[in-house]
Amino acid sequence: MANICLKRLWLFSKTKQLQSCMRAFSTTCQLKCTHADFPGSKSVYVHKINFLNPDLQEGIPVYRVMTGKGQMEAESEDPKLDKETILKMYKDMTLLNTMDRILYESQRQGRISFYMTNFGEEGTHIGSAAALDPKDLVFGQYREAGVLMWRGFKLIQFMDQCYGNHDDLGKGRQMPVHYGSPELNFVTISSTLATQMPQASGAAYAFKRAQNGQCVICYFGEGAASEGDAHAAFNFAATLDCPIIFFCRNNGYAISTPTCDQYRGDGIGSYFVKTCQYKFIV
Ligand SMILES: Cc1ncc(C[n+]2csc(CCOP(=O)(O)OP(=O)(O)O)c2C)c(N)n1
Ligand SMILES: [Mg+2]
User: Fold this and answer.
1) How remote is the CA of residue 253 from the centroid of ligand 2, in Å?
2) Which distant-in-sequence residues (6+ apart) come within 8 Å of 229 by Cβ?
3) Eight-class DSSP state of 189
4) Burial of 87 by CB count in 10 Å (0-12 exposed, 13-18 middle, 19+ buried)?
5) What's 109's DSSP letter?
6) Is 196 exposed, middle or buried (0-12, 13-18, 19+ CB in 10 A)?
7) What is the distance between the alpha carbons of residues 153 and 61, in angstroms, rounded to a whole number?
8) Rounded distance from Cα 118 to ligand 2 centre (Å)
9) Residue 200 CA to ligand 2 centre (angstroms)
10) Could you tell me the CA-to-CA distances from 113 to 158, 188, 254 in Å, in that order?
11) Is-contact 144 138, C-beta < 8 A?
């Protein structure tokens, strides 16, 4: 009995010591700390109320090294690609454009049920695909046929898929343009917007755990970014520090809805810049 009482007394005195220690710590912290440092906040303390007005901030800067007329604006940024690579890039961009015209007309003539063109976005597909390793995994939306073309998907394979014939890799089970190729590390397109995004974060997390040195690229339109899935994907990838590139194709429209009807700010980029919400490198 005496033993138990002694033990309680000892515990009580320890708790008291701890409490006075904590009080001392918090008093010094209140006196000296300039930043809040507790779970969920690392913000600086200010003593005047100041509303942050996002309209006063500049939009996200756009990286550009070549003028519309093809002149280099910043010589130091020239990647100095070899002629063979540049020619392949150019050929693939023009081939994609021609394929689009034929398949778009096929759809208009009623030969295939559906088609999505890539007009004007060819450079984004080929440029980004060329920068990746062929083993890196691609999660696309539906307007990234150029990435697949760069990796070696043949014209006949595009046709087989759009026509849903016997030679189609998906055996005609998918709508046209919902390509996929395990061989080329290109995950089959889903019609439901943004569902590829959390899947891509999950795949990137698996890569991180496997430490295989590969990364994931996830393409999405600025319209798809309004889906809740997009935010789940961003947060998941940022918190778990996943090797992933989120590639937003901001073409100004979600089919017929202009960005100004969808965002108050500067499109999807403003989420990152104005709130630094996901702590991504933009
Ligand atoms: C969950 C979901 N909602 C709506 C649609 C219908 N839909 C198909 S494409 C599209 C617009 C997507 O716009 P964006 O992401 O900007 O891609 P873009 O067509 O401009 O390349 C919509 C709303 C869909 N496929 N899935
Ligand atoms: Mg769009």
Assistant:
1) 4
2) 194, 195, 197, 198
3) P
4) exposed
5) T
6) buried
7) 34
8) 11
9) 19
10) 14, 18, 21
11) yes
Measured from the Cα of 143, ligand 1's closest atom is 21
Separation of 9 CA from ligand 1 center, angstroms?
68
Q: Which atom of ligand 1 is nearest to the CA of 249?
A: 21
Query: What structural domains does the chain harbor?
Result: 80-276 (3.40.50.970)
- The Å distance, Cα 246 to ligand 2 centre, comes to 15
Nearest residue by C-alpha to atom 23 in ligand 1: 254
Q: Among 117, 177, 192, 193, which residue has the most ligand 1 atoms within 8 Å of its CB, making it the best to mutate?
A: 193
Any idea which ligand is nearest the CA of 255?
Answer: 1
Name the one residue in this structure whose structure tokens are 């980029």.
269
Cβ atoms of 189 and 141 closer than 8 Å: yes
Q: Write out the chain's pLDDT in tens, 282 residues.
A: 455 555 555 555 555 555 554 555 454 455 567 888 888 777 888 889 988 777 777 777 888 888 889 898 988 998 899 999 999 999 999 999 999 999 999 999 999 999 999 999 999 999 999 999 999 999 999 999 999 999 999 999 999 999 999 999 999 999 999 999 999 999 999 999 999 999 999 999 999 999 999 999 999 999 999 999 999 999 999 999 999 999 999 999 998 999 989 887 766 766 665 555 676 676
Q: Residue 116 CA: which ligand 1 atom is closest? A: 19
Parallel/antiparallel/unpaired status of strands 257-258 and 253-254: antiparallel
Instruction: Take atom 9 of ligand 1 and give the residue whose Cα is closest.
Output: 255
Which atom of ligand 1 lies closest to the CA of 222? 16
CB 178 within 8 A of CB 189: yes
CB 239 within 8 A of CB 282: no
